Fold:
Amino acid sequence: MRIYWLRITGGLFGIAVIIMMAFANQFGLESFPTWGVRRIGILLAGILLLAVSLFYQRENFIGRTIHSTDGRLYLAVFALDIVIFLIYLWFASDGMWKMLPNETNYYDLQANAFARGQLELGVQPDPALIAFKDESLYEPANREGIPVLWDATLYKGKYYLYWGPAPALLLALIKPFHPSDLGDKVLTLLFISGTLLFLTLTILELWRGHFNHIPRGTALAAVAFAGLVNPMPYVMVEGRIYEAAIVAAQFFLMGGFYFLLPAFNRPAIPRLALAGLFFTFAVGSRTTLIPAIGVLTLVVLLWAVQAQRPRAVSFILAFVLPLVLGAVGYGWYNHARFDSITEFGYRYQLTSYNLYQQIGETFAFEYLPPNLYKSLFNPLERRDAFPHIFPTRWSGPGWLTDYHPKMYLTYTENITGIFVGSPFLLLAVLAGIHPRRDLRWILLALSAAFLAVFITLQAFFFVAMRYMLDAVPTLALLSVIGFWHGFDLFKNNKAYSLVATLLLIYSIAVSLLISFSGNLELFKIHNPELVRQMTWTFNSLFK
Structure:
């Protein structure tokens, strides 16, 4: 009887929501005549609630899901992912919900070029740029006053992008059906949502296969952390081509892990082939992942030879073939643009530095000390003005402040050290203490990939918050394993649970706070009323 009345109540509530959203303008709930993302989302929630109420039967899929323990977990995870997506959307829209302020549409330009069957962008360089006949073009001072497509690559009078082509290739496929411009922020939102999906699926796969003796709530905690750890929400506020490329690469990298990690214990050719394909697209989105994919390939080769000798050749071919085809394709793409299979266009970039002359200085081991300090220890700043806690560009010791090797940039962009802003990530260390045998290849793959990309980042001539996203999702998976493994190491000790919970809450809270405060100026520009309301509310509550 209770189920019957719940269905009636849920159905009526769903109908009420649908009616209110359909006639939101007439009811005075919406002032805009067009449908915003918030309105569409609420409408879909009402439709879903009505559908569940109408079609629920204890014996069908809906009933079995609701009445099984695992089913309720999956429903809770699904609801949590919806909440995380809404948080992404809030930051992406600067709290407005209805629109996504967009700064760049570079991937759309490249997709349009691909759709026309060409590699160069459909943007004509200024004649003053074409007038340059030598490499003096790439000296910023020589281009002063000349309009340029910022950070694009100019070679032989044509604009190209040094960012990987994979996202634009996918976007080109839908151009015949959606010819309108699509901003890079929309792609950032789509790819980070996909990254969240693959992180969620991977976490659930790891929990089911290796840690289902741990309380189910820890799976929810793991998903919440992986989805909200800094800089996942942070990159959504700007959402330019820079963030879109990084997030796209993480979407494909996490997708590759979703297929690869279970294959270590349940090998299958389709899984390995899909992993190789996703890793290929990861490199095709961001070339700084080449070292990570390289070491992952070595791990797979080692695993196949040591643990799967009878089928090693078929497993290796399934994984490596997409990578080889991708490398050949990327080499052709580079040669067709820049007459060299190894030239990605970085040296021909029109930016603040003469990279044509300084390309050999962009990566150097001398940059490791200051970059490591920034990435691990750079502190937060306390200010009198709301919201009081802010990320900083640099707050290092004097001996590092005065350290300027080659073209290193000390004061560039905000970054918060992992030890300061995301201490839950440190639980990754627990995964290596008395490691379980059934996790050894998984841990090796994740650890090798993380170290490869992290060291690559530290050798660059500057680091920024968005760059940390190249490494953090992989480290988040390691920390989730360490978090769960800690329950076995400490025998479900309540003190461990308390410490881990506090680290989790702190890490998520700081991530959300600095995602707002670190982008406060953009919020003030796009949504000043929200900033005023939040400031007034906070000051009223905490005088």
Q: What stands out?
A: The beta strands are 153-155, 158-160, 380-382, 389-391.
